[in-house]
Amino acid sequence: MRPERPLLAVDDLVVVYRGGPGWLWPIRHAPAVNGVSFEISSGETLALVGESGSGKSTIARAVEGLVRICSGAVRLHGENVTGPVRGRTPDTKRRIQLVFQNPDGSLNPRHSVLTILSRPLSIFRRLRGAHLRQAAIELLADVQLDASYLARMPAQLSGGERQRVAIARALAAEPELLLCDEILSALDVSVQASVIALLRRLQRERGLAYLFISHDLSVVRWLAHRVAVLFRGEICEQGRVEDVFQPPFHPYTEMLLAAVPRLDGGSMAPPPSATTGAGPERTRAEGCPFAGRCPRRIGPICDAEGPPFQQLRDGHAIRCHIPAGELASLQTEPAMPAAPAFAATTSSV
Amino acid sequence: MLGFFMKLSPAARIAAVILLVYVAVALSGPLWAPYSFNAVLTGGPFEPPSTAHLLGTDNLGRDVLSRVVYGSRPVLAMALSATGLATLVGAALALPLVLQGGLADEIGMRILEILASVPPLVLALLLISGLGNGNILIVLAVAFLFAPRIARVVRAAAMAVVVEDYVTAALTRGEAMWSIAVREMLPNVAGTILVEFAIRCGFAVVFIGALGFLGFGAAPPAPEWGLMINEGRANINASLWPVLAPAAAMAVLVVAINLFTEGLARAIGDAPGTAP
Q1: pLDDT > 80? residue A30
Q2: A231-267: per-residue pLDDT in tens?
Q3: What ipTM did this prediction achieve?
Q4: Which of B172, B192, B274 to mutate to probe the A interface, most A CBs <10 Å?
Q5: B105, B165, B171: best mutation site toward chain A, by most A Cβ within 10 Å?
């Protein structure tokens, strides 16, 4: 069903941060990303969800080539581009663009909007002078800002405007894949709505693919085609958004969904003895990463064996020892997060 | 320019005016100085201040005012060029090291710290006695002494900039190292560099004066302030003025530089273009 050669294929990715007092005696930490695999096709949005520290941003930075990859491969159109960004061809750099979480830090405070947009335009599209200026105006129009913004400094822009300029800078390279690292989290809800509408329109018009990192499940449900749920650097559930947000869930997905506050005061029935907050890393290295916090732990097998990926329909996979049918019967409550408040406005754009 | 002046504190404004007077005197001095710096027996030796000699005369009957006025030229030229060179070298060392990071940064900075930890006057005297004398050599020696110290300050500021996402963004689009250092980082550390330059200018004035006092650099009969203080020192019982005048000229200059720098640092702190 999926095309033979996806736009992006990440295969068994492992990233271990080296830390410690210096370069001489690096201390090895537990892997930030451990054996993660996923694919993104053109025009598709894959959302990565998970709690803080689950390795979402690290995956985006590994795809961009900003962190050292210990093992595994990143392939773009089947071509291996695993190495650091400095070693990549200009064309590979052009195709993958990263939009940062915090628009205050991603725009140089001493550069005008024109200067900010002109660097990628001159590097990737070799534009100069009047052509460059024209292209910059078109980019601003793409993100619904007018030409008067060219002369502005970042300090003269609102948070939402800054994030649009940051998106325009990424679009200047004419990318195929946009890595969106929590790009909405610094914005208020109404601005979020307009940025989401913008992302959807760009995807419709240009077939852009997104790796959309978020912890806001209602936004993910609204924007993504497929979802991968991360826990401690490992994918525990992956599939189409409508499958992942319906039973059967992985117990961790179930906990994430139960944690979403509801406006009507009610919430999904919490799983038995749900524990939030940090728990032990895992009870044993070879066991399930979620075993220490799992409310549906079934016994010693959870500590002793890494659970298998149970393949369900349409690429939906759950990594758990509990058979999917049994999970489904335990989890009856429908838990689709409510459509965001701005959904009505978004869908009409 | 005037807007910037208005942002300075009152003390810094006064200091700025004093500095402008010094520059004006250095530039125009030869046009109006009452005597040549080298004209002997323009009056008797050790004359007290009078209308003919506003600051008196020295042991050879030379006009002290004229000598102090002429003396402002080498001290300003040498302090500015030595500090400017040191700032250029320091920034050019620090920015690529910070950007490169890792082992290169560690080794580079340790070398610069070793250089910065040698007492400056000792190192300067070593350099000058080893390589010869002359104003250009003194400028080079002072620049060599100041560059590692400036590099450390620039590095500290650049460390805060290099982690910003706009630098990462420049890396991901494949910008050259020099381009990232100059385009992305330099504008954001320029304020720090400017303030550091100003502080070091004050140090340089004193340092060059000290070298002159010790007999390095300018040779008699050059009107160098440090040298003049040393020459007048022998006859301080006969007349105070040949010592007092150059010493006061140097002290006022350094105080003005320091006050101006303090105001400059504050004014840059809320310069336009920085995020609130």
Answers
A1: no
A2: 999 999 999 999 998 888 899 998 888 887 766 555 5
A3: 0.85
A4: B172
A5: B165
Q: Is the CB of residue B270 less than 8 Å away from at least one CB of chain A? A: no
Sorted by sequence, the CB contacts under 8 Å of residue B97 that are 6+ apart come out as B104, B105, B108, B109, B155
Going B196 to B201 to B206 to B212, the CA torsion angle's sign is positive
CB neighbour list of residue B91: distance below 8 Å, 6 or more residues apart: B150, B151, B154, B186, B189, B193
B chain contacts of residue A93, beta-carbon cutoff 8 Å:
172-174
Looking at residue A152, its amino acid is R
Task: With CB atoms and an 8 Å threshold, state whether A123 touches B173.
Answer: yes
Tally of CA atoms within 13 A in the half-sphere of B260 that contains its CB: 24
What is the pLDDT, as a whole number, of residue A348? 41
Q: A-chain residues within 8 Å CB-CB of B101?
A: none
CB contact (8 A) between residue B165 and residue A102: yes
A-B C-beta contacts closer than 8 Å:
69
Q: For residue range A332-349, list pLDDT tens digits in order.
A: 655 556 666 565 554 443
> pLDDT class for A314, splitting at 50, 70, 90?
confident
| Cα A42 from chain centre | 16
Chain B neighbors of A22, CB-CB under 8 A: 106
How far is the alpha carbon of A189 from chain B, nearest alpha carbon, in Å? 22
Contact A49, A256 (CB under 8 A): yes
Q: Which residues contact B123 (CB under 8 A, 6 or more apart)?
A: B145
- For A218-238, give one letter per residue: b (16+ CB within 10 A) or e: bbbbbbbbbbbbbbbbbbbbb
Q: Which of B166, B173, B187 sits opposite A107 (nearest CB)?
A: B166
Give the whole-angstrom CA distance, residue A159 versus residue B247: 55
- Least confidently predicted of A21-30, B135-144, B216-225: A21-30
Rounded CA-CA distance B180/B186 in Å is 8
Its pTM stands at 0.83
Q: What is the tally of helices (H) and strands (E) in chain B?
A: 11, 0
> Is the CB of B165 inside 8 Å of chain A's CB atoms?
yes
Whether B192 and chain A come into contact, CB under 8 Å, resolves to: no
Question: Which domains are assigned to chain B?
Answer: 19-24+63-270 (1.10.3720.10)
Average pLDDT value for residue range B110-137: 89
User: Pairing between strand A209-213 and A226-231?
Assistant: unpaired
- Distance between CA atoms of residues A173 and A20, nearest Å: 37
| pLDDT tens track for A46-98 | 999 998 888 999 999 999 999 989 999 999 999 999 989 989 999 999 999 99
Say if residue B179's pLDDT is above 70. yes
The SS3 call for residue A39 is strand
Measured between CB atoms, which of A64, A105, A123 is closest to B166? A105
